[in-house]
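User: Could you go from structure to sequence for me? I need the amino acid at each position, not a summary. Structure tokens:
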């Protein structure tokens, strides 16, 4: 229904992409062919790991072989834009097993890869198992080595880093994610989905039946200070950084005048880089590693 409406209004893939996120354990070749024929031009698989023990530990249903098969089938179905997600710092994971996963996924047909450090949500089965000692996470030092290996290994193999957690072959960057990181307007369809119009954030009803009945979304009017903060820390996630003249145009703020002393501190620590000629502010390689510390400057 949504796809038909977008096609009828001329908004389908005009000018961007259509990405479908998939579970590697539930998709098959026939479905992939159907999605491709519908006009979906990009698929993303939640692989997380290519070690069966690690995948099982976090409650995922697929196996490593199923994940690699799904990627291969997507390629055979005609998809040229294939992405996968990985997580480092998983229970039972070692640097060696993570290296194996990374090597195998890069050798597959993917053209884009997202790599995230594990976040343990409260009141989840994983949190309970960690709390009672049934599972143990890798040490901070081991997780850092996994992070460092990710950065060097992917760059060496032609997947350039264009955002803190995202890597792509040239021309394969995620266009819809760049909309979020550039803090541009977007529409969200479905229960609990969010939309942003440049000044307000609208969140649809979480309850599916309420959403279907047409329940009005919750509207959050964003103060200009909040909008500026979100613009800054989202834009700094990208390797290109932020054109501060855009911040001036959109929010009427001279970022260097407002935050200059704090920014200078991180420039001196080689975590931020400022090009005065281009009026561009961006994270360095070191800054990418400790981005959350820098983002707090603008909150």
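Assistant: Here is the amino acid at each position, in order:
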């Amino acid at each position: 229904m949504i796809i038909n409406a977008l096609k009828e209004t001329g908004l389908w893939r005009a000018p961007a992409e259509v990405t479908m996120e998939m579970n590697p354990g539930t998709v098959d070749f026939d479905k992939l062919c159907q999605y491709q024929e519908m006009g979906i031009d990009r698929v993303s698989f939640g692989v997380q790991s290519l070690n069966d023990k690690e995948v099982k530990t976090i409650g995922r249903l697929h196996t490593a072989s199923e994940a690699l098969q799904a990627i291969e089938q997507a390629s055979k179905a005609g998809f040229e834009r294939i992405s996968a997600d990985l997580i480092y710092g998983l229970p039972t994971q070692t640097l060696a097993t993570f290296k194996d996963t990374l090597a195998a996924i890069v050798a597959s047909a993917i053209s884009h890869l997202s790599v995230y450090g594990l976040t343990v949500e409260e009141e989840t089965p994983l949190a309970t198992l960690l709390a009672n000692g049934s599972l143990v996470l890798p040490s901070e030092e081991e997780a850092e080595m996994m992070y460092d290996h990710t950065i060097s290994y992917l760059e060496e193999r032609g997947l350039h880093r264009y955002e803190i957690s995202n890597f792509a072959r040239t021309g394969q960057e995620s266009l819809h994610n760049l909309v979020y990181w550039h803090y541009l307007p977007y529409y969200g369809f479905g229960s609990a989905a969010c939309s942003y119009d440049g000044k307000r954030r609208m969140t649809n009803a979480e309850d599916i039946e309420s959403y279907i009945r047409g329940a009005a979304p919750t509207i959050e009017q964003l103060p200009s200070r909040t909008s500026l903060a979100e613009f800054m820390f989202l834009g700094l996630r990208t390797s290109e950084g932020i054109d501060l003249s855009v911040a001036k145009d959109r929010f009427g703020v001279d970022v260097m005048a407002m935050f200059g002393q704090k920014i200078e501190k991180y420039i001196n620590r080689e975590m931020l880089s400022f090009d005065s000629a281009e009026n561009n502010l961006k994270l360095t390689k070191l800054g990418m590693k400790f981005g959350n510390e820098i983002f707090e400057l603008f909150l």
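One structural detail worth keeping in mind: Residues 140-156 form the longest helix (17 residues).
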